[in-house]
């Protein structure tokens, strides 16, 4: 098997690589990107082939790039709550939650999966923004809190797809069979200590394994691949097709510091009953709610021939009367299952209702688009819970 030619990527010590890097090389990765200052394999086959494996089999995905921010210490719970408007008191030890880390103006700093490791220790598996630096800066505004802030090197990998349960059962036995969605447990894989969660970035049934001993990356990867052989396991990169179908947003592409939870349609992640002092974003979010949002991100279907790839640039969106640009398409791709081009688009609120029409300047020519409900597939999110 031919290895990916890493001479195509400018390397240096500032670019970290995953503990699974050596293991993935034997599966001939066909491309890398940089995410959270780390090298990240993006695919091993075509995106369409990987999508089919995810829908029908089981995939393994190196997501060590989800660098993990740990908040701990005697006041860890109070400080962790400052970061997010979601009520962390409702998250039990042994449970995980999808949360938004928001600034004082309500802007989204990061959208991690958070796991509560004990009463005062929280792990935040980060998207590609420097939330660790944000947290360290925030600590200086609360000098009386006794808190520790650090990155823990726990290198998650994802096992995703309808046969992931079979793989995980063979790997760890019955302990994972009854694991609930968004819960976690400690385990060992061939003597390697890990944390296992029922989470993923695919909207499919899946798990994540957090490696607690970085030196065992190759052994863990191979143990997972060996357990998956009866189920046709394959390594993949992120499935943009499936995450867009499932209305999973990508920080840095679909949202950033300038966007807030209300215009993202993520108000469910705000607990309005919390006092303003509990989270630094709550006062700002209350102001936004009172004033009303002026734009929203929506799902769109785009007509014409199938897009040959994920969009490389953000595309301008126009009213169909030919006036100036009013919005922006952030992510768009062709879904083979739906036989449609689908994506996300920022629009003024008067164009946010399903049925609204747009004109989009794509990389492959101007196209008509319609606003549609999200998610595009499985709107009740029953698949990953199953």
Features:
6-stranded mixed sheet, 386 residues, alpha+beta, Elongation Factor Tu (Ef-tu), domain 3, Gyrase A, domain 2, 6-stranded antiparallel β-barrel
Secondary-structure blueprint:
Elements: H1 21-25, E1 31-35, E2 38-43, H2 47-56, E3 59-62, E4 68-72, H3 76-83, E5 96-98, E6 101-102, E7 108-110, E8 113-118, E9 121-125, H4 131-139, E10 148-152, E11 156-160, H5 164-172, E12 184-189, E13 192-197, E14 206-211, H6 217-228, E15 234-236, H7 240-245, H8 282-291, E16 295-302, E17 315-318, E18 325-335, E19 340-348, E20 357-362, E21 365-372
Helix pairs in contact: 5-6
Descriptive overview:
- With 386 residues, the chain is α+β, with helices and mostly antiparallel strands.
- Strand 20 and strand 21 form a beta hairpin.
- Helix 5 (164-172) crosses helix 6 (217-228).
- The model has no long low-confidence stretch (mean pLDDT 96).
- Helices cover 18% and strands 30% of the residues.
- Among the domains are: 6-64 and 155-244, Probable tRNA modification gtpase trme, domain 1 (Gyrase A, domain 2), CATH 3.30.1360.120; 294-386, Elongation Factor Tu (Ef-tu), domain 3 (Beta Barrel).
- The strands form five sheets. It has a six-stranded mixed β-sheet. Strands 16-19-18-17-20-21 form a six-stranded antiparallel barrel.
- It contains eight helices and 21 strands.
CATH H-level superfamily title of one domain: Probable tRNA modification gtpase trme, domain 1
Task: Say what the CATH topology of one domain is.
Answer: Gyrase A, domain 2
Give the helices and strands as they follow along the chain.
Answer: HEEHEEHEEEEEHEEHEEEHEHHEEEEEE
Main β-sheet, spatial strand arrangement:
12-13-14-11-3-15
Computed structural class? alpha+beta
CATH uppermost class of one domain: Alpha Beta
Q: Got a strand count?
A: 21
Q: Return the CATH architecture of one domain.
A: 2-Layer Sandwich
Radius of gyration: 21 Å
Strand coverage percent: 25-35%
Quaternary assembly: single chain
Give the CA-based shape. globular
| Cα distance spanning the termini | 36 Å
Give the overall average pLDDT: 96
Number of helices: 8
Ranges where pLDDT stays below 50 over 5 or more residues in a row are none
């Amino acid at each position: 098997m031919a290895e990916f030619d890493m001479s195509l990527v400018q390397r240096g010590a500032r670019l970290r690589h995953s503990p699974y890097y050596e293991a993935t090389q034997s599966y001939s990765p066909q491309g890398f990107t940089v995410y959270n200052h780390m090298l990240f394999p993006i695919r091993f086959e075509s995106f369409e082939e990987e999508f089919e494996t995810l829908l029908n089999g089981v995939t393994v995905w190196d997501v060590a790039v989800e660098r993990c921010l740990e908040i701990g210490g005697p006041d860890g719970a109070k400080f962790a709550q400052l970061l997010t408007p979601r009520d962390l008191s409702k998250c039990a030890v042994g449970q995980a939650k999808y949360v938004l880390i928001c600034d004082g103006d309500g802007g989204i700093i990061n959208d991690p999966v958070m796991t509560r490791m004990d009463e005062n220790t929280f792990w935040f598996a980060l998207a590609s923004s420097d939330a660790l630096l944000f947290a360290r800066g925030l600590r200086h505004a609360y000098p009386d809190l006794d808190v520790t802030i650090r990155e823990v090197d726990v290198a998650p990998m994802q096992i995703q797809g309808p046969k992931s349960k079979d793989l995980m059962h063979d790997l760890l036995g019955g302990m994972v069979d009854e694991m609930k969605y968004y819960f976690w447990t400690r385990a060992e894989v061939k003597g390697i200590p890990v944390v296992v969660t029922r989470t993923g970035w695919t909207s499919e049934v899946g798990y994540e394994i957090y490696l607690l001993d970085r030196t065992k990356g190759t052994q863990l990867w191979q143990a997972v691949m060996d357990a998956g052989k009866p189920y046709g396991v394959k390594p993949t990169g992120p499935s943009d097709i499936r995450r867009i179908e499932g209305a999973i947003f990508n920080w840095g592409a679909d949202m950033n510091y300038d966007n807030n939870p209300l215009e993202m349609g993520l108000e469910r992640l705000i607990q309005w009953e919390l006092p303003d002092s509990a989270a630094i974003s709550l006062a700002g979010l209350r102001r936004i709610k009172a004033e009303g949002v002026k734009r929203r991100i929506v799902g769109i279907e785009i007509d014409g021939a199938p897009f040959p790839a994920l969009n490389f640039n953000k595309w301008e969106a126009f009213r169909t009367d030919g006036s100036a640009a009013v919005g922006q398409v952030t992510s768009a791709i062709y879904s083979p299952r739906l036989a449609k081009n689908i994506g996300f688009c920022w629009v003024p609120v008067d164009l946010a209702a399903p049925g609204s029409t747009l004109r989009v300047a794509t990389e492959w020519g101007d196209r008509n688009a319609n606003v549609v409900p999200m998610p595009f597939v499985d709107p009740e999110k029953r698949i990953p819970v199953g």
